[in-house]
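pasting for ref
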Amino acid sequence: MNSKKLFTYLISVVILLFFFDGLFTVNQIEQVVITRFGDPVLVIKDPGLHFKIPLLEKLAFFDKRLMSVELSALEITLGDKRRIMVDAFGRYNIVDPLKFYQTVYSERGLLIRLNPIVLGSLSSVLGGVELSDLLSDTRISAMNKIRDEVNKAAKSFGINVVDVRIKKTDLPVQNTEAICQRMISEREREAKEIRAKGVEIAKVIKSTADKENSIALAQANTKVQMLIAEGEAEANKIYIDAFSKDKDFFEFFQSLNAYRTTFQKHNSTFILSPKGKFFHILNEGK
């Protein structure tokens, strides 16, 4: 009985190991490398239920989907001798899981191997590109060239590089400070030029306005003098026409105006004979 129980127990253990460690499922987004004592023995890409030798064989799962890898920032000298900091990333998928397992083993291992390849290609290709081209549509052809170079080198890792893109470009810190200072100096120079032009224009406007004002005043004064002269001439004409009708009254009126003009100042002193012609109007009244 004891032997039968032991045998039954062993059979049960084998069955449990078969179900729990021997059977495994591969879904549609996975591919598997089966290893035995660390050596790959089988690659499974088809989804479904599969079997491995319990305890002896291990599974290494790899994703079939498109994956991204972030690359280290790199300082690059462009074709126009300008230096920029470049942050890039790549997208890839694993097409040969066995080769991937044998060369890089994991995504971390891939990053270590792929990073210098991408950065080297970036430095080589962008070294012949000017900054103005990098900021235009020309960069697309440059990035495609980088992708092709990286993909050619990365095939030995069992991957297919679909894309390499620049995520961000920036200037080195020392260049940024120098450029900012230069921009400040240029803005200050432009501000001084604008202020100087403004002062010059203001002077021209003021001198033009002063000239026009002087001309307007002169023309107005001339017109006023002409009107006064015309008024006085018209008044004299009226006086002459009026007084020519009565000569005695005209002489009387003119004498009264002379008296008024002469004696309007209270502190004036005159030494005249009361019988002179100047007072003939007054004498006639006696």
